[in-house]
Write a structure and sequence with these properties.
This protein is 43% helix and 17% strand. By secondary structure, the protein is α/β, with parallel strands linked by helices. The protein has a single domain, classed as Alpha-Beta Barrel (TIM Barrel), CATH 3.20.20.410. Helix 8 packs across helix 10. The protein is globular. It starts with a helix and ends with a helix.
């Protein structure tokens, strides 16, 4: 299947993939090397069409991790095993875990900190005022939104439901500052962000080109 993706896409097309939930959600980095090796071997078939790979973690309540420290104790040895020939990004949903030392840990291993436009996460400009958000050689931005809220407004994902222009303008301005320094940016949109991912992408592109 992965080989067919490469064969069916033109030169320059880039795939980005999430690392399996068995690693990030079920095992939460424990005893997961076989799954990680299999996944990376499969993704490597994409060759120069392979882009960043995302470690997306869920929100962890106190029953899972009473604080950030137990998570970091699992994360540190895992990061050391990541092969350098791949590009990795990491996303956390526990906003109180975001700090200079956590980002420094990612920077030590050239893992990009995923920036998330999510209802319960800090805005990018708030984070940018306090922290250096570039921890790898690229930036990974995800526009997720408030799934529960927007699903209460629509069950069809064929048009924009919410006007995200003010928020998206802030993101464009902050991401422009990063790309102006020569750092490549990948941006990904969910239908739940504003109701229609292709529409959000077009709006983002228009705002980007207008700045």
């Amino acid at each position: 299947m992965v080989s067919s993706w490469r064969e069916k896409t033109p030169p320059g097309f880039i795939f980005a993939a999430k690392i399996p939930g068995a690693i990030t959600h079920e095992k939460v980095l424990k005893d997961c090397q076989p799954e990680m090796t299999t996944f990376l071997n499969n993704m490597s078939l994409l060759g120069d069409r392979l882009g960043p790979l995302l470690l997306q973690f869920p929100y962890f309540n106190r029953n899972v991790f009473p604080s950030r420290e137990p998570f970091v104790r699992l994360l540190k040895p895992f990061l050391k095993t990541l092969p350098k020939e791949f590009k990795f990004a990491l996303e956390i949903r526990n906003k109180n875990w975001i700090s200079w030392d956590f980002l420094e840990l990612l920077r030590d291993h050239s893992v990009s900190f995923a920036l998330v436009a999510h209802a319960w996460m800090p805005p990018i400009d708030t984070l940018a005022r306090a922290l250096d958000l570039v921890t790898g050689d690229f930036v990974y931005a995800r526009f997720i939104g408030d799934r529960k809220d927007i699903e209460g407004k629509t069950t069809r994902w064929d048009k924009l439901i919410e006007d995200k222009t003010p928020e998206m303008s802030v993101w464009v301005n902050e991401l422009k500052k990063i790309t102006d320094k020569g750092v490549k940016t990948y941006a990904f949109f969910n239908n739940h962000y504003a109701g229609f991912a292709p529409g959000s992408i077009k709006q983002f592109e228009d705002l980007w080109n207008s700045v």
